[in-house]
Amino acid sequence: MEIVNTLVAAAVAFAAGAVWYMKLADPWMTAAGVQRDASGQPEGGQNPMILAFTFVMQLVVAGMMRHVFASSGIDSVGGGLLSGLGIGLFFITPWIAINNANAMRPPMLTMIDGGYATVACGLMGIVLTLF
To answer: Residue 19 half-sphere exposure, CB side, CA atoms within 13 Å?
Structure first.
Protein backbone atom coordinates (compact mmCIF):
# COMPACT_ATOMS: atom_id res chain seq x y z
CA MET A 1 0.00 0.00 0.00
CA GLU A 2 2.93 2.37 0.54
CA ILE A 3 3.53 2.73 -3.20
CA VAL A 4 -0.15 3.32 -3.90
CA ASN A 5 -0.64 5.93 -1.19
CA THR A 6 2.59 7.67 -2.22
CA LEU A 7 1.41 7.86 -5.83
CA VAL A 8 -2.03 9.09 -4.77
CA ALA A 9 -0.50 11.69 -2.42
CA ALA A 10 1.68 13.01 -5.25
CA ALA A 11 -1.31 13.10 -7.62
CA VAL A 12 -3.45 14.99 -5.08
CA ALA A 13 -0.67 17.54 -4.50
CA PHE A 14 -0.16 17.91 -8.25
CA ALA A 15 -3.90 18.49 -8.79
CA ALA A 16 -3.96 21.00 -5.93
CA GLY A 17 -1.11 22.82 -7.66
CA ALA A 18 -3.11 23.03 -10.86
CA VAL A 19 -6.00 24.65 -9.00
CA TRP A 20 -3.73 26.87 -6.85
CA TYR A 21 -1.75 28.26 -9.76
CA MET A 22 -4.77 28.66 -12.05
CA LYS A 23 -6.40 30.82 -9.37
CA LEU A 24 -3.19 32.77 -8.70
CA ALA A 25 -1.79 32.81 -12.25
CA ASP A 26 -1.74 36.57 -12.71
CA PRO A 27 -0.14 37.53 -9.39
CA TRP A 28 2.29 34.61 -9.67
CA MET A 29 3.40 35.55 -13.20
CA THR A 30 3.86 39.16 -12.08
CA ALA A 31 5.85 38.18 -8.98
CA ALA A 32 7.92 35.62 -10.89
CA GLY A 33 8.64 38.05 -13.72
CA VAL A 34 7.22 35.72 -16.38
CA GLN A 35 7.16 37.42 -19.78
CA ARG A 36 3.70 37.41 -21.37
CA ASP A 37 2.48 37.55 -24.93
CA ALA A 38 -0.25 39.88 -26.24
CA SER A 39 -2.99 37.62 -24.85
CA GLY A 40 -1.49 37.68 -21.34
CA GLN A 41 -0.26 34.09 -21.51
CA PRO A 42 3.36 33.12 -20.82
CA GLU A 43 5.55 33.59 -23.88
CA GLY A 44 6.32 30.28 -25.50
CA GLY A 45 3.43 28.48 -23.77
CA GLN A 46 3.66 25.63 -21.28
CA ASN A 47 6.34 22.97 -21.64
CA PRO A 48 4.90 19.47 -20.97
CA MET A 49 8.30 18.35 -19.64
CA ILE A 50 7.93 20.85 -16.78
CA LEU A 51 4.63 19.23 -15.82
CA ALA A 52 6.24 15.76 -15.87
CA PHE A 53 9.18 17.04 -13.80
CA THR A 54 6.76 18.64 -11.35
CA PHE A 55 4.94 15.35 -10.81
CA VAL A 56 8.21 13.49 -10.28
CA MET A 57 9.27 16.07 -7.68
CA GLN A 58 5.87 15.71 -5.96
CA LEU A 59 6.52 11.97 -5.89
CA VAL A 60 9.93 12.53 -4.27
CA VAL A 61 8.38 14.71 -1.56
CA ALA A 62 5.52 12.25 -0.95
CA GLY A 63 7.97 9.34 -0.75
CA MET A 64 10.15 11.11 1.81
CA MET A 65 7.12 12.22 3.81
CA ARG A 66 5.90 8.60 3.87
CA HIS A 67 9.29 7.50 5.17
CA VAL A 68 9.35 10.23 7.85
CA PHE A 69 5.79 9.39 8.91
CA ALA A 70 6.58 5.68 9.18
CA SER A 71 9.78 6.35 11.14
CA SER A 72 7.97 8.76 13.46
CA GLY A 73 4.85 6.67 14.01
CA ILE A 74 2.54 9.23 12.40
CA ASP A 75 -0.48 7.17 11.41
CA SER A 76 -3.59 9.26 12.10
CA VAL A 77 -5.19 11.61 9.60
CA GLY A 78 -4.90 14.50 12.06
CA GLY A 79 -1.25 13.72 12.66
CA GLY A 80 -0.64 13.47 8.93
CA LEU A 81 -2.33 16.81 8.28
CA LEU A 82 -0.47 18.59 11.08
CA SER A 83 2.87 17.07 10.14
CA GLY A 84 2.35 17.81 6.45
CA LEU A 85 1.43 21.42 7.18
CA GLY A 86 4.52 21.69 9.39
CA ILE A 87 6.79 20.31 6.68
CA GLY A 88 5.39 22.75 4.14
CA LEU A 89 5.36 25.77 6.43
CA PHE A 90 8.56 25.22 8.41
CA PHE A 91 10.83 23.30 5.99
CA ILE A 92 9.86 24.07 2.41
CA THR A 93 8.56 27.64 2.70
CA PRO A 94 11.68 28.97 4.47
CA TRP A 95 13.85 27.42 1.76
CA ILE A 96 11.72 29.06 -0.92
CA ALA A 97 12.06 32.35 0.98
CA ILE A 98 15.85 32.01 1.09
CA ASN A 99 16.04 31.35 -2.65
CA ASN A 100 13.67 34.18 -3.51
CA ALA A 101 15.40 36.66 -1.20
CA ASN A 102 18.80 35.89 -2.72
CA ALA A 103 17.33 36.22 -6.22
CA MET A 104 15.77 39.54 -5.12
CA ARG A 105 12.29 38.30 -5.98
CA PRO A 106 9.21 39.95 -4.48
CA PRO A 107 7.92 38.59 -1.15
CA MET A 108 4.59 37.87 -2.89
CA LEU A 109 6.30 35.07 -4.83
CA THR A 110 7.32 33.43 -1.55
CA MET A 111 3.80 33.82 -0.20
CA ILE A 112 2.24 32.20 -3.27
CA ASP A 113 4.76 29.37 -3.62
CA GLY A 114 5.14 28.82 0.13
CA GLY A 115 1.37 28.77 0.52
CA TYR A 116 1.12 26.10 -2.13
CA ALA A 117 3.92 24.05 -0.52
CA THR A 118 2.10 24.20 2.81
CA VAL A 119 -1.30 23.23 1.39
CA ALA A 120 0.16 20.50 -0.82
CA CYS A 121 2.15 18.93 2.03
CA GLY A 122 -0.91 19.06 4.26
CA LEU A 123 -2.91 17.22 1.61
CA MET A 124 -0.10 14.71 1.15
CA GLY A 125 -0.07 14.13 4.89
CA ILE A 126 -3.79 13.38 4.87
CA VAL A 127 -3.53 10.95 1.95
CA LEU A 128 -0.46 9.19 3.36
CA THR A 129 -2.32 8.42 6.59
CA LEU A 130 -5.65 7.44 5.06
CA PHE A 131 -4.49 3.95 4.02
So the answer is: 9
